[in-house]
Amino acid sequence: MWKDFKAFLMRGNVIDLATAVVIGAAFGKIVTALVDHIIMPCIGLLTSGVDFANMKYVMQEAEVNGLGEVVKEEVAIGYGVLINAVLEFIIIAFAIFIVIRIMNKAKEKLAKKEEEEAAEETPKDIELLTEIRDLLKKS
Question: What are phi and psi of 21, to 5 degrees?
Answer without folding.
Answer: -65, -45
